[in-house]
Amino acid sequence: MATAGALRLGPSSSSSSSSFLHGHRRLVPARPKPHVPASPRGWRGARAAAHLHDLFVGVGVGLPCTVMECGDIIYRSTLPRPTGLTLTAPGAALALAAVSYLWATPGVAPGFFDMFVLAFVERVFRPSFRKDEIVLGKKIGEGAFGVVYKVSLAKPKPSVKEGDLVLKKATEYGAVEIWMNERVRRACANSCADFLYGFLERKSKGKVGDEYWLIWRFEGEDTLADLMQSKEFPYNVEAKILGGNQDLPKGLGRENKIIQTIIRQLLFALDGLHSTGIVHRDIKPQNVIFSEEARTFKIIDLGAAADLRVGINYIPKEFLLDPRYAAPEQYIMSTQTPSAPSAPVATALSPVLWQLNLPDRFDIYSLGLIFLQMAFPSLRTDSSLIQFNRQLKRCNYDLNSWRNLVEPRAGPDLRRGFELLDLDGGIGWELLTSMVRYKARQRISARAALAHPYFNREGLLGLSIMQNLRLQQYRATQKDYSEAANWVINLMAKSGTASEGGFTEAQLQELRDIKPKRGSAQRNVLASVLRLQRKIVKTLNESMDELNQQRKSLWWSRWIPREE
Ligand SMILES: Nc1ncnc2c1ncn2[C@@H]1O[C@H](COP(=O)(O)OP(=O)(O)OP(=O)(O)O)[C@@H](O)[C@H]1O
Questions:
Q1: How far, in Å, CA of 389 to CA of 501, rounded?
Q2: Does residue 300 have its Cβ closer than 6 Å to ligand 1?
Q3: Best substitution site from 148, 325, 366 to test ligand 1's pocket, by max atoms within 8 Å of Cβ?
Q4: Is the CB of 287 under 6 A from ligand 1?
Q5: Alpha-carbon gap, residue 150 to 215, rounded angstroms
């Protein structure tokens, strides 16, 4: 084969700018002569570069036109087009898959933009606060990890809207709470109380323990817990969220409408958090505040929240849950998932881990219990809620079994609750039962719940054919596929004997144990698939554990400002 350089013809060669090759009139792409330096070392380098250049650019010159990008000088349309990006079907599919992965919940790509662009831009423009600018007012709350005060500013700041503020002096989980609040403020500000600033206040020498100061706008006096304790509930909320006079007479229909509105507002707030990769983990009426200005309910207290996008605060073995509202799984991630991986690993794997664990369904369960308390006044006290939880556990977390258990001997109060949920063909009960389920995978997501016909004015009866179809589709997707897999396995078991290629119970057990076995091809394929699935999960977990060996630091706390 001719060397690439030997047959090179072009404007820089001694021949004409067009040349004849293989007896045809062909245009040959020109190649500029490489610059030759004076020193031998430089000369050798230049030669190497020229060789490399020839290898990639010159190869093909002098070869048949099937290889080269040749064109006919007369038929100009056959001349090579300017080289640009060529879109091929597999390329487009690959790009689409990559983009879908990067944008899938909890959002790797938006996460990078948020962390490395938005966070810095925001820091330049937002107002900051110092300890001596704040005047402490009355204490409004005290938890295990902090004290909350109503405060005001010593001197008004032009960049800060007038009004009362709230200050939390937090110890242990203050850094996490600042991180979560800042993320929320950038991603879904309306979901949570309006966060203004957070900083680390270093204690002077001699005093122990640093404190994190967190400042919010004062949203209002009432939490949902305060409002639900009133005998007037839900009417005491009606004027706040639905405004002035309501034309409906007092009764179940009107109460249902108010409860619907509260649940919808909370689902919106949760959907905002979940779509940015944050799971609250402590949803309860005490952590829901009514914002007088926005006339809507907002979520507070993100101290126990986990950021699944970068793996902050999801430590499967550690939990700070309120047992009254916690979902049965208690851990938002499978206990097989190793403790929080390093940030880049967590970020890269976050869509996979999210889909494997569906951690957001933890909050959905808690919200389901709040829904239940709204419908049944007798479940609003701590003791009755604890008792209900025990009953539900005995019923294997199946609300329908619980209903069968209590309804026959229910008092007027419980019966009224069931009546309220049974309005519009029982659509409220259906939504409730899809929120309170044992398996996280079977629970509805916040977004799907918002599209549920419970929030449709006319309920089930008012659904169009298309909406009905969507509902059927939704119901189908709520089914647990592990049950479906078991069903298929059982069907296969019953479909034959070992000699006919079917499975006996004993063989099935072997399959479930996924031990390699010699046998029919059908059985081996299934066993291999199950083995492969198990191996993937195991490898994923092991590699994350390995990456975790280097001690995790609170790398993200560098983002938190300090008061010097
Ligand atoms: N932005 C706000 N506007 C008005 N009140 C607020 C706001 N944030 C918090 N509060 C009030 O402060 C109380 C305590 O807040 P928060 O739950 O965040 O603190 P905490 O120390 O975590 O308490 P706990 O451990 O009991 O949950 C709330 O119940 C609420 O009454």
A1: 46
A2: yes
A3: 148
A4: yes
A5: 10
Chain position carrying tokens 């006319």: 458
Grouped pLDDT means (10 residues each) for the chain, 564 residues = 38 39 43 51 66 54 55 63 74 88 82 82 84 90 86 84 90 84 92 93 67 94 96 92 76 92 96 93 96 95 86 60 87 55 72 83 97 96 95 95 94 94 92 95 94 74 63 59 46 43 48 50 76 69 51 58 62
Kindly state if the Cβ of 286 falls inside 6 Å of ligand 1.
Answer: yes
Is 282 among the residues known to form the active site? Answer: yes
The position carrying tokens 């394929």 is 525
From 194, 271, 282, 363, the catalytic residue: 282
Residue 517 counted as an annotated binding residue = no
State the pLDDT at residue 172. Answer: 72
Nearest CA among 338, 344, 281, 280 for reference residue 309 = 344
Q: Burial level of 398, CB count in 10 A (0-12/13-18/19+)? A: middle
Instruction: Give the residue whose CA is nearest to atom 18 of ligand 1.
Output: 301
Calculate how far, in angstroms, residue 2's C-alpha sits from the geometric centre of ligand 1: 81
Residue 292 CA to ligand 1 centre (angstroms): 15
pLDDT value for 444: 95
φ, ψ for residue 18, nearest 5 deg: -110, 150
Q: Is the CB of 223 under 6 A from ligand 1?
A: yes
pLDDT at residue 485, rounded to an integer: 45
Nearest to 377 by CA among 273, 274, 227: 227
Cα distance between residue 153 and residue 341, in whole Å: 40
Q: What is the dihedral of CA 319, 322, 327, 333, to 10 degrees?
A: -20
Q: Complex ipTM, two decimals?
A: 0.97
Residue 480: CB atoms within 10 Å: 13
Rounded to an integer, what distance in angstroms lies between the CA atom of residue 447 and that of residue 477? 14
C-alpha 392/C-alpha 403 separation (Å) is 10
pLDDT for 365:
97
- Going by alpha carbons, the residue nearest to atom 20 of ligand 1 is 143
**How much distance in Å is there from the Cα of 458 to the middle of ligand 1?**
37
Q: Looking at this protein, which amino acid is placed at residue 548?
A: N
- Residues near 278 by Cβ (< 8 Å), separated by ≥ 6? 106, 180, 183, 184, 302, 305, 306, 307, 308, 309
> Distance from the CA of 301 to the center of ligand 1, in angstroms?
6
With a 6 Å cutoff on the Cβ, whether 151 touches ligand 1 is no
Alpha-helical (H) ranges within 410-454 are: 412-421, 423-435, 446-450
Residue of 475, 380, 389, 395 whose CA lies nearest to 434: 475
Q: Whose CA is nearest to atom 26 of ligand 1?
A: 143
In 345-495, DSSP assigns E strands to none
pTM exceeds 0.80 for this model: no
